[in-house]
Amino acid sequence: MGADQHLDWRNIAASTLDWWLEAGVDTLVEERPRDWLVPDALPAPAPLPPAAPAAAPNPGYPVTYEEFLAYRMGDQAPDAKWALARVAPSGDPATAALMVLTDVPEEADAAAGHLLAGPEGRLLDRMLAAIGLAREQTLIASVCVARPLAGRVPRASATELEAMARHLVGIVRPRRLLLLGQIASRAVLGPKAGAHGDCSDMLSDDNLACKAVATYHPRVLLERPMCKAEAWRDLQLLIEENDA
Length: 244
What we know:
Blueprint: H1 9-22, H2 65-72, E1 98-102, H3 109-112, H4 119-130, E2 138-142, H5 155-172, E3 176-180, H6 181-189, E4 197-198, E5 211-215, H7 218-223, H8 228-236
Parallel strand pairs: 1-2, 1-3, 3-5
Antiparallel strand pairs: 4-5
């Protein structure tokens, strides 16, 4: 009776977390829960011990695109154990006019065999067409090649996955780079990465010197169409003077 009561709470929760992640909120305000009924005069809890430093990423990644792709899709990658199905980057690094980096494969991508195969990809295709590009002219890659269970990059694997994403961008050396969402931006630009806009000046590695723009992920634009105007302004930053 009435509306359908069979809600997918996991996807709803993940969508809510994506909202805060895209807004730049990725940590709790306080590490310990607070009892708001206790007066403020009580002594503050003792500080937590410092977290152990994250393991340094493997510096020995292959240096050619083909070798790195084989390594990245192999069983030794940190996300290989998440799922049997893995989704490789698509496009030719030698001819691509634009590199697009997303965070994780969407639910439909493994079955389709390529990234952004569902409604998020159809929206991306329209975004690219608006600046005069087709998917065939782009190289599309992701920070993770396997989809995490919750659809978000686990913190325990984030350091190495981000290092591998930066390494891939350094191999491709794109003229133009579009970063979809906060996770992709942080992987390439570091923890101070913004959610959108021109971020070319944040590229510190000489191999990453290019026109870099961050914008909202298409899944966010599908949920919050009011952000499309701002995403359009971001996309216009990718149009070179000789393309106009």
